[in-house]
Design a protein that fits this description.
Number of helices: 3
Structural class: mainly alpha
């Protein structure tokens, strides 16, 4: 996997963990009010989820082959 795929995946996992903590009444960001914590967590999760959904992640073996073809043909910016 390339560096961008790993970073996007880690950020998505962190957003999901944060959302689960908020749903269980835990405050993962100390010093914030509950309402602001929920709002920020929801916005953060929505943005990261949309970003990872629309970003092309070459995770599967088929995706890796597609990436190689795109790079060989000069049709992508991925490294």
């Amino acid at each position: 996997m390339d560096k961008g795929t790993i970073i996007r995946s880690v950020v998505l996992i962190l957003a999901l963990i944060n959302q689960l903590l908020m749903a269980n009444g835990l405050t993962p960001i100390p010093g914030t009010e509950d309402a602001w914590g929920e709002i920020l967590a929801t916005i953060f999760t929505a943005v990261i989820s949309a970003w990872t959904f629309f970003k092309n992640n070459f995770i599967t073996p088929k995706g890796q082959k597609q990436k190689e073809v795109l790079q060989r043909e000069g049709l992508t910016k991925a490294k």
